[in-house]
């Protein structure tokens, strides 16, 4: 969001004062790829809270509060919302600390128990999410049309830069058709809540028992769709490698929680949804680099391409793989260097 305007600073100061936090020390926290800002508030008694500052409260603060209430109701840990001014996009929430799973892993923590906690949280969601809650919350439904629309960012943001020209209408139409062919059987499977950005940066270890030890954050963009999406998001991470044996163990752990699930169909869904996610992430990282100068994300591109290539090699991705082979052969993918400017 850049520097805070004096008008915005005055709004924040008034909000903090109204909630008894005028004297709290304010410490900016590192953000993510969104426009939200976070600050840690240090109170005189030594306690801490988190200030949320968003320019789009209807898109993130409102759903965060509503979805969080449902997740808490089924026994999961989400930050308690202590005060909010939805109209101004400000909130004060519980501070989960700094023990993100990613930070713990970087410090040498054993990944097995962390990934088990994360997998168990998904099992809890997919078992316990209340019937009718998706409609009540007006969650976006991730059907083939929405998934195809999201992958289309690749033909809009990546392909014109890689090829030096925009794609023709026919090329774009063939892209859509290939993805729809792959996604229709996947979206026919049993749906549930999709947290959509479920990975170790958005999970925090808490000193709580059982599944509550996994603190969930950044779920305001949740939707409704195939259950495999969040598990593949966790296990095929754009920012870090996950050992294949660990990933296999977590898929088995998840499937053991749902004995009636067709395991082969679920794994095919993981492949298709992993490919969707990786295709979109490639485009997002390139768009951030070219549009906002945020080139730090490009360090992850080789990993994301490697994950995408692995999925494209699977039979269930054949229509999409054929499109890639025609319009962006493997050698061209590997050789492409994102320019400084366009």
Name the helicity range: 40-55%
CATH architecture of the largest domain: Alpha-Beta Complex
Q: Order the strands across the largest sheet as they lie in space.
A: 1-2-3-5-4
What is the C-alpha radius of gyration, as a whole number of Å? 21 Å
Uncertain residue ranges: none
Average pLDDT score: 94
Number of helical regions: 14
Main beta-sheet strand count, sense and barrel state: 5 strands, antiparallel
CATH superfamily of the largest domain: Aminoglycoside phosphotransferase (APH), C-terminal lobe
Strand content: 5-15%
Structural class determined from secondary elements: alpha+beta
CATH level 1 name of the largest domain = Alpha Beta
How many structural domains in the coordinates? 2
Q: Rough shape?
A: globular
Helix/strand order, N-terminal first: HEEEHEEHHHHHHEEEEHHHHHH
Separation of the first and last Cα atoms: 23 Å
CATH fold title of the largest domain? Aminoglycoside 3'-phosphotransferase, Chain: A, domain 2
